[in-house]
Design brief:
InterPro entries: KdpC. It is found in: Cell membrane. The system is composed of three essential subunits: KdpA, KdpB and KdpC. The protein is mainly alpha-helical and 181 residues long. The chain folds into two domains: 2-39; 43-179, no CATH class. Helices cover 45% and strands 8% of the residues. It contains seven helices and five strands. It has helices at residues 2-34, 36-39, 91-100, 128-133, 135-142, 146-155, 169-179, and strands spanning 43-45, 51-54, 125-126, 157-158, 166-168. A three-stranded antiparallel β-sheet has the order 3-5-4. A two-stranded antiparallel ribbon has the order 1-2. Strand 1 (43-45) and strand 2 (51-54) form a beta hairpin. The protein is elongated, with a radius of gyration of 23 Å.
């Protein structure tokens, strides 16, 4: 019996070292060498080198002078990232959406992306129409021409061959902050 157990244990040890140690180290090394920014969280730094956010995680912005991301079911906390899991018939969902409606002021019907949470609760992107919906409010608050804000939204719209175009709200607000005198 030991003749069968010893090779099985040896194979388990070898495969554990290959799949549990060697492979993860190789993949991490390739990631650090080829995609260092993405492998380290796609962090954004200010002019002093201080981390101010990540392009992968939404942040709350308050005030009418900023573009606002979609609401977060977990209050933008990465630990509790998730959807609200409330059914369309749930009164709590209706109450939360009713509370979100009308916070943004724009022309036309409010885009759903500004009142509905994303699946993770941390999606940093908005559809371009949801960003454009906020332009009138921001232009008024900052005393900027709406055309300049429209140009900023267009410059920060990420277009994809597969899937919809999106705007990263943090990057848009950073550009807005640099653009405003």
């Amino acid at each position: 019996m030991f003749a069968h157990v010893r090779p099985a244990l040896a194979m388990m040890l070898v495969m554990s070292l290959i799949t549990g140690v060697a492979y993860p180290l190789v993949v991490a090394g390739i990631g650090q060498a080829a995609f260092a920014s993405q492998a380290n969280g796609s962090l954004i730094h200010d002019s002093t080198g201080q981390v101010i956010g990540s392009t992968l995680i939404a942040q709350p912005f308050t005030g009418s002078e900023w573009f606002h991301p979609r609401p977060s079911a977990g209050d933008f906390a990465t630990v509790s990232s998730s959807a609200s899991n409330l059914a369309a018939s749930n009164p709590a969902l209706v109450k939360r959406i009713s509370g979100s409606l009308g916070k943004e002021q724009g022309s036309g019907p409010e885009p759903l992306a500004l009142v509905m949470t994303s699946g993770s609760g941390l999606d940093p992107h908005l559809p371009p129409d949801a960003a454009r919906y906020q332009i009138a409010q921001i232009a008024h608050a900052r005393g900027m021409p709406a055309a300049e804000l429209e140009k900023l939204v267009d410059e920060h719209t990420e277009r994809s061959l597969i899937g919809p175009s999106v705007v990263n709200v943090l990057q848009l607000n950073l550009a807005l902050n640099e653009h405003t005198p």
